[in-house]
Design brief:
The complex is a heterodimer. By secondary structure, chain A is α/β, with parallel strands linked by helices. Chain A has a domain at 6-42 and 49-95 and 177-183 and 210-319: P-loop containing nucleotide triphosphate hydrolases (Rossmann fold). Chain A is built from eleven helices and twelve strands. In chain A, the strands form two sheets. In chain A, strands 6-7-8-3-9-10-12-11 form an eight-stranded mixed beta sheet, with helices on both faces. A four-stranded antiparallel beta sheet of chain A has the order 2-1-4-5. Chain A starts with 5 loop residues before the first strand and ends in an 8-residue tail after the last strand. Chain B is an alpha/beta fold. Chain B has two domains: 4-91 and 171-320, 3-Layer(aba) Sandwich (Rossmann fold); 107-170, no CATH class. Chain B contains twelve helices and twelve strands. Chain B has helices spanning 46-54, 81-87, 109-120, 125-138, 144-147, 157-169, 187-204, 215-221, 239-244, 249-256, 296-300, 317-320; strands at residues 4-15, 18-30, 35-39, 62-71, 74-75, 92-95, 175-179, 207-212, 224-229, 232-238, 306-309, 312-314. Chain B has an eight-stranded mixed beta sheet with strand order 6-7-8-3-9-10-12-11, sandwiched between helices. In chain B, strands 2-1-4-5 form a four-stranded antiparallel beta sheet. Chain B starts with a strand and ends with a helix. Classes of the chains: A alpha/beta, B alpha/beta. Chains A and B meet through helix 6, helix 7, helix 9 and helix 10 of A and helix 6, helix 7, helix 8, helix 9 and helix 10 of B.
């Protein structure tokens, strides 16, 4: 295998929790991302799955360096982003772009589509000013927008169209890596399919590396080559997409897969569902040992004491569970 | 006799930009103890149908233009406010999508939970609290006695939805309307809440109208499904028939665009175009411009919802003519 395009080494992003009125004191720490090591290969689509509060969005923002990293390194083609200066980051962001969940909030309502798409080109001086218009038109066409809509404002578009604009903006600089944070969660099923197709097609055509974040496993399975499952700031399972979905090894992944409603009514009523007790734990007061132990059906004494590392369980599969070989 | 019979319900919103026909002639029945799924994309009129029944459509700009909703001899749409109050919140209850915003943040859970009891039944506060406690336990909240004194912000999303369910069921309603109750929740919590609704429905022998955009949720829970598009019901059938043999092109397309059913690596099936603008009603079938099986007739004639087999009714001219 060639060298990974993106390499994360024990990345931690912690947020201080402060309380008190006059004399604010740090009273705790939220470990949103807590020791993640991950490498992403060139041209790969990596799906990142987890429930709300598990740190998947914070991980995305950490890779983008939108939040300061507490410890660890993020290497983009060997360049360490965590130690980069502002000027170096600006250059790096040409290769690293992001698409956000809510296309109603991520587009500036006062900018026309043209201005939105031209801005990154002008900031990064990618093309001479006289060629900007041609580039914007080409970008719009690439994502399936006609050049006639370039003078319109975001509020004149539907959710799916806005997400196309957001994708075009991310593509403007011809990045190598795109991080898409729940890009289809706010969309209806039929529109969702259009956007997923567009993303898959762009990845193929432009040889993009995509980190695709979602909570919907069936969506992630469809688009990803590999899937990483997160729980409370850590990756608990990592493997090839179809394999993880068909043979989940970690008890949490097993519960997630089992919670996907089947479309076939007979199948759904026949297959027993694994229903977890309780809610995801609060990151403010994480459980001791394995973070999943209060909800795990296979819990044992050792799970409460030791935090299991993410280790190779079989070829192309990493799992973080002490009882891996027993269950 | 059905428990609820809705006939030709039409609800529109009169705005400065025109009249939006959100619900445009919806008729259906609900039997005692039945679970009816109401499926459709955003803007298809599924929530407005429920809001109309519950008297929650803001008027103005909303207006219920026509229709009846007969519930035990009373027309919910045309009865006096006093009659409506005696039914809504007691025999007909509703839970909402967002448990974060549908509880009052200033009131303790106890006060919100027993409010329907104090209003609808001649009951003392201690007796009501005892029933509230039993109800909280029934929806699976641990330490219910202490949790009664808590405020909504002390609960997680899934717990709040449990409280909402307890609140809706405390008067032992005959019909529960659930408007996307699990959309805002995580997958594992969604599975818990669906299981809870199923269990309570059997215990309480109530009918449920389950509104959702997620076909997968419907298939495990509902006896019968109605698919809505642009303010109308386009297809209705028992759950198995609807999933095994959908007839309406929209239902077929909707099922085909779900990722889990499709082979990986290939493009997902998509429905071309966008849903129609409800403020500009056109002649003919509302789905015609996006339909793969469209003919000239579809643009001219309005298809009614007609039975195509014993268990299935479809609003499509070509299905009715047995062409597709």
């Amino acid at each position: 295998m060639s060298s990974p395009i993106l390499q994360l080494n024990d990345v931690q992003t912690h947020f201080p929790v402060e309380s008190g009125f006059l004399f604010r004191q740090q009273t705790g720490t939220v470990k949103a991302v807590d020791g993640i090591t991950l490498s992403v290969q060139r041209g790969e689509v990596l799906g990142l799955v987890g429930e709300s509060g598990c740190g998947k969005s914070t991980l995305a923002r950490t890779i983008m360096q939108l939040v300061p990293t507490t410890a660890g390194t993020v290497l983009l083609e060997g360049r360490n982003l965590t130690a980069a200066s502002a000027a170096e980051l600006l250059v790096a962001r040409r290769d690293l772009q992001m698409i956000f969940q809510d296309p109603f909030a991520s587009l500036n309502p006062r900018l026309t589509v043209y201005a939105t798409l031209a801005e990154p080109l002008l900031v990064h001086r990618v093309v001479p000013p006289e060629q900007v218009r041609a580039r914007v038109v080409a970008l719009a066409e690439k994502v399936g927008l006609s050049s006639q809509v370039l003078g319109k404002y975001p509020h004149e578009f539907s959710g799916g169209q806005r997400q196309r604009i957001a994708i075009a903006r991310a593509l403007a600089l011809e990045p190598k890596v795109i991080i898409a944070d729940e890009p289809v969660s706010a969309l209806d099923v039929s529109i969702q399919a259009q956007i997923l197709n567009l993303l898959a097609q762009l990845c193929r055509e432009m040889h993009l590396t995509l980190i695709f974040i979602a909570h919907d496993l069936s969506v992630v399975k469809h688009i990803s080559d590999r899937i990483a499952v997160m729980y409370l700031g850590k990756i608990v399972e990592l493997g090839t997409a179809t394999d993880v979905m068909e043979r989940p090894r970690h008890p949490y992944t097993q519960a997630l897969v089992s919670a996907i409603p089947h479309l076939d009514p007979d199948l759904q009523r026949r297959s027993p569902r694994l229903i977890l007790a309780g809610d995801p734990p609060s990151p403010l007061h994480p459980p001791t040992g394995c973070a999943f132990h209060p909800r795990c059906p296979h819990v044992q004494t050792q799970c409460r004491a030791t935090t299991p590392p993410l280790q190779l369980a079989e070829p192309e599969r990493h799992v973080a569970c002490v009882r891996l070989n027993e269950i | 006799m059905p428990l609820l019979e809705v006939t030709d319900l039409r609800t529109s919103f009169h705005t400065r930009n025109g009249v939006y026909r959100a619900v445009d002639g919806v008729s259906f029945t609900l039997a005692k103890g039945e679970t009816l799924g109401l499926v459709g994309e955003s803007g298809s009129g599924k929530s407005v149908t429920c809001y109309s029944l519950m008297g929650l459509v803001p008027q103005p700009p909303g207006r219920i233009e026509s229709g009846t909703a007969m519930f035990d001899g009373t027309d919910l749409l045309h009865c006096s406010p006093a009659q409506a109050r005696a039914i809504r919140g007691k025999r007909l209850a509703m839970i909402f999508q967002d448990p974060m915003t549908s509880l009052n943040p200033y009131l303790r859970i106890a006060d919100q939970l027993i409010e329907p009891l104090l209003i609808h039944e001649k009951i003392s506060r201690p007796a009501a609290l005892a029933r509230g406690l039993a109800m909280l336990e029934a929806v699976g909240i641990n330490d219910a006695a202490q949790r009664l004194q808590a405020y909504p912000h002390e609960f997680s999303g899934g717990m709040r939805q449990r409280v909402m369910i307890a609140m809706a069921l405390i008067t032992r309603p005959e019909i529960l309307i659930a408007d996307e109750p699990t959309t805002a929740l995580d997958v594992t919590v969604q599975a818990q809440i669906l299981e809870l609704i199923k269990k309570l429905q059997q215990e309480f022998h109530m009918a449920v109208i389950f509104v959702t955009h997620d076909l997968g949720v419907v298939s495990g829970l509902c006896d019968r499904v109605q698919v809505m598009y642009a303010g109308r019901i386009v297809e209705t059938a028992d759950t198995r028939t609807l999933f095994r043999a959908p007839r309406h092109p929209y239902t077929q397309a909707l099922q085909r665009s779900i990722p889990s059913l499709q082979p990986k690596g290939r493009d997902l099936y998509t429905i071309p175009g966008l849903p129609p603008d409800l403020s500009k009603p056109k002649a003919g079938c509302a789905f015609a411009s996006r339909c793969a099986a469209v003919t000239d007739r579809c643009h001219a004639t309005d298809p009614g919802l007609l039975p195509v087999s014993a268990a299935q009714a479809t609003a499509c001219l070509r299905v009715q003519a047995q062409e597709i």
